[in-house]
Amino acid sequence: MKIREVSQHLTGEMKDPHFKELYELERQKLTVIKPIIAYRVKNNMSQGDLAKQAGVSQQHISKIENGEFSSVATLQKVLLHVGYTVRRNAFLS
Predict the structure, then answer these.
(1) Alpha-carbon span 23 to 37, nearest angstrom
(2) Residue 66 phi, psi dihedral angles, 5° rounding
């Protein structure tokens, strides 16, 4: 499938309010995940290494990097460790 066809398909799907809401949620999750992964890559760390430093389990890091934010407290702990914080209606570096 060509990129143009994907873009056209996405444009059509975005007309559905439910799809648009889910798409936006996934985009926001990616905004949170990217700096955590970037921190690990920049510092040549495994998920286990980051988990030890942040004081959480490797499983928590894995879940966070997969967009599963079941514990906001754990997510915030990891984000603080990599230099970010979560504030109401904002994600700040």
Answers:
(1) 21
(2) -100, 10
- pTM: predicted TM-score of the whole model, two decimal places: 0.78
Indicate the length of the chain as a whole number: 93
86 within 8 A of 76, measured Cβ to Cβ: yes
Q: How many CB atoms lie within 10 A of CB 50?
A: 23
13: left (phi over 0), alpha (psi -120 to 50) or beta: alpha
Q: Residue 44 is encoded by which pair of tokens?
A: 């040549």
Instruction: Look up residue 62 and give its amino acid.
Output: S
Residue 60 CB burial class (10 angstroms; 0-12, 13-18, ≥19):
buried
Q: Give the tokens for residue 9.
A: 């398909």
36-48 per-position pLDDT tens digit: 999 999 999 999 9
Domains, the chain, with CATH or none: 3-92 (1.10.260.40)
